[in-house]
Design goal:
By secondary structure, the protein is mainly beta. It contains 1 helix and 20 strands. The protein has a domain of 228 residues: Porin (Beta Barrel).
């Protein structure tokens, strides 16, 4: 990826970014996110608008990346080979301590050729996202947002239908005196085919860093729940849709996505050197509803839950090391093992997964 960014003082900004993502020797060939020979990742114009009382107001139009909060619902999808961008318009406002974005966009479809990516005709995405610091929490911040999604052909365990979904959420996050926290709540309403959507999620992370101790260990625990469908024979749908989440949602292997799930995820992070970080994770997964299946990070159905009563999906142990060699170069490696649980043994039957990856990133 290479970009050019032109900013005239208090005037128009022009930004262009090209990308090339290549893949060789994958069994079954490249997936949509694996290969894009050469294309525009971003190309937008940003025009500031003078408004009395506002610290900053601008309109950004064109192809652009979006990322909000912890990237649970809106992300540029860093983990796959090709990142996600959107075509559309965004309004950016900073006023009275608030950062507010309003947008209406279409997600881009990654094609494998040259300059052939196009807006997805089956999906529309719009929303309003606001962030502000708060004094009633130690080192705290508050996010409030509404996100709307329209999909013509949405697939869930009960079937395929037109989906119109409205997500209303809030997030409190921050840290002080070694502690850090991140809590998020989302409710979803709308229509799926001839039925109503009533879905939700609760996500949490609490951590503490021992700054004065050797290796500066950080201990943390994540606990997350996303709702699943109550009855596939009923037209109503309770399966949570994570919209456009980050790719490596539960670790680099990205085997499980945040829909119809419960997970408990302790983590230990160490700093053996000021430029080296080591993290050790253990993540356990259950189905929230035994009447619904399990999904991937792209809200793709991995395994139907119909006819299976087991709740436990499996658990994953993972270790990752990252070395920041200098201001330009970083090197990382990751190993994970996924142990199949009773649900996968009952339905597939599933097999354990070993995963290893290593990569280098050069930024200039």
């Amino acid at each position: 990826m290479i970009h050019a960014d032109l900013r005239a003082q208090e005037s128009i900004r022009l930004f262009t970014q090209f990308k090339s993502g290549l893949e060789e020797d994958r069994n079954g060939g490249p997936r949509a996110v694996d290969r894009d020979d050469f294309d525009l990742n971003q190309a937008f114009i940003e025009v500031p608008i003078p408004v009395s009382g506002a610290d900053f107001l601008a309109v950004r139009a064109g192809r652009q990346e979006l990322a909000y909060g912890s990237s649970r619902l809106v992300s540029f999808r860093e983990a796959p080979n090709n990142r996600l961008s959107f075509d559309g318009v965004k309004i950016i406002l900073t006023i009275g301590g608030w950062q507010v974005d309003a947008f209406a966009v279409k997600p881009m479809r990654t094609q494998s050729g040259v300059f052939d990516d196009d807006p997805d005709p089956n999906r529309n995405f719009w929303g309003l996202y606001a962030v502000t610091p708060v004094t009633w929490l130690p080192g705290g911040n508050l996010d409030l947002y509404y996100l709307g999604l329209d999909r013509k052909h949405a697939s869930f365990d009960p079937g395929v239908a037109h989906e119109l979904r409205h997500s209303f959420g809030s997030r409190v996050w921050g840290g002080q005196s070694g502690w850090d926290y991140n809590f998020e709540w989302v409710g979803q309403l709308g229509r799926f085919g001839g039925g109503d959507i009533q879905a939700w999620t609760v996500a949490s992370e609490l951590g503490f860093t021992f700054e004065g101790a050797p290796l500066k260990p950080r201990l943390s625990i994540k606990a997350n729940v996303t709702s699943g469908d109550d009855d596939p024979k009923n037209a109503d749908l309770q399966t949570f849709n994570p919209l456009f989440p980050r790719g490596a949602y539960f670790g680099e292997p990205a085997l499980i996505g945040p829909a119809n799930h419960i997970d408990a995820h302790p983590q230990l992070a160490l700093a053996p050197h000021r430029n080296v970080k080591l993290s050790l994770d253990w993540d356990c997964f259950w189905r929230a509803s035994t009447r619904d299946g399990i999904y991937g990070p792209a809200v793709n159905l991995l395994q139907s839950g119909q006819g299976a009563d087991s709740r436990f999906i499996g658990h994953q142990a993972e270790a990752m090391v990252a070395w920041q060699v200098d201001r330009h170069l970083s090197v990382s490696a990751d190993y994970a093992h996924f142990f199949t649980g009773a649900f996968l043994e009952q339905t597939t039957p599933g097999k354990d997964v070993n995963y290893f990856s290593a990569w280098a990133t050069f930024r200039f």
